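Exam revision sheet. Question 4 asks you to relate a sequence to its structure. Input first:
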Amino acid sequence: MHIKVGTRGSKLALAQTNYVVDALKKAAPETEADICVIKTKGDIMQDVSLAQIGGQGVFVKEIEEALLAGNIDLAVHSMKDVPGETPQKLIFAAIMPREDARDILVSRGNVKMEFMPKGAKIGTGSLRRAAQIKAMMPDVNIMPLRGNIDTRLKKIETENLTGVILAAAGMKRMGYLGKITQYLPVELMLPAAGQGALGLQVRGSDADLAGICARLNHPQTAAEVSAERAYLRALGGGCRLPMAAYGLLEGERLTLEGLLAAPNGSTVIRDKVWGEIEEAQVLGKKLADLILEKGGKGLLELMC
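Answer key, structure tokens:
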């Protein structure tokens, strides 16, 4: 089988895609793959915040369109970039084993978050990260940040930032673990839904390729991400309010924690639910209902 694999063109995206292609070739030696780089709206419009150009989904839309048009056969996505709703004719044939889902800090002088000076300038392009940082440390300044990992790290020097917040998974996949100042525990910084997980998306009609990709599926990660994404959908994933969700399967017990916040961190609503692995989708809806009851409904009505 000869397939075309679509991906974004950043160093991280290409590293992730090469990892997937290597895994596919091991699982199905008869598979040959060409990597096709696709520019997305999020990659092209680097001088505008993600919230202004559409928020979640700006890194996947063009890739999904290429998949629907038959220009590629397989799309490799970072699941944190994928909106809660995806085209009906496309399916995720596999969710790969999750990397570290946490966020990390890289700072000037290796200063940890708890020792940041008043007025510290923290760089992030994520509403989710910004809201949680402001809730913890109201006196820090959030500096808008776009670009790939290397660009963001360089801005510590070029824009005199105190530090930047990034995903641990990306730093590990790029071989940058030595640059990390601090891992931020999920108790303080709840990750984005799907953070650290890679998804393999194909056309639903392409049963042969879906079957090959399914060999790479990791049931634990798939259950966790399924619950997280169900939570997003139940809240209305198109809203640009800061949202976070983190599922953790331990044995047969699946715990799902979720968050909804005001962009400035003045309001943070957080709760958790748990149940059986088969209840992943139900847990997402149950958690969303709890968050809405605790004030989320009013926050959504006010901000969305």
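Marking note for examiners. The chain has a mean pLDDT of 92.
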